[in-house]
Design brief:
The chain is mainly alpha-helical. It has a single domain, classed as AhpD-like. It is 73% helix and 0% strand. GO terms for molecular function: peroxiredoxin activity.
Length: 155
């Protein structure tokens, strides 16, 4: 795979705006560990290798266990995630797969049970941001660091 376009270089103002949203999310009411799980799960659904590389590394640095990272795609069948995390992951899937889910009342009720109104907005913005980053990275074929190293080694 080769990169189609370096979107940060092509539109630095757009990149700066996206980065600003990400900075808000990082300082928001959503705990860092949960934000990383959300970023990983959305990136799994969207098939974003670059974001998966980044956010699994970030989650590990923040103390997330390998086991919870490995089982994230099967979170519904695992007892390793708290009810709050499961509510956030359900909302992540609902918004990431919006055409299929319609952001159902059941998913929202679960969200509202575990998150304050402010947290609901902050979580929804976090989900929106990672989905936007995924679309930029997948659409422009951003190459993740391990692929760049492999390409240099093969050259």
């Amino acid at each position: 795979m080769s990169e189609r376009l370096n979107f940060a270089a092509a539109a630095p103002e757009a990149y700066k705006a996206m980065f600003g949203v990400s900075q808000y999310v990082a300082q928001s009411s959503i705990e860092h560990s949960l934000a990383e799980l959300v970023k990983i799960r959305a990136s799994q659904i969207n098939g974003c290798a670059n974001c998966l590389h980044m956010h699994t590394a970030d989650a590990r640095k923040a103390g997330e266990s390998e086991e919870r990272i490995y089982l994230l795609s099967a979170w519904r069948e695992s007892m390793l995630y708290t009810p709050r995390e499961k509510a956030a992951l359900a909302w992540t899937e609902a918004l990431t797969l919006l055409p299929q889910s319609g952001a159902s009342d059941a998913d929202y009720a679960l969200l509202a049970e575990h998150f304050s109104p402010r947290e609901q907005v902050d979580l929804t913005l976090a989900i929106s941001a990672i989905n936007s980053w995924n679309r930029l990275a997948v659409g422009f074929r951003t190459v993740h660091p391990n692929e760049k190293k492999a390409a240099r080694a093969a050259a």
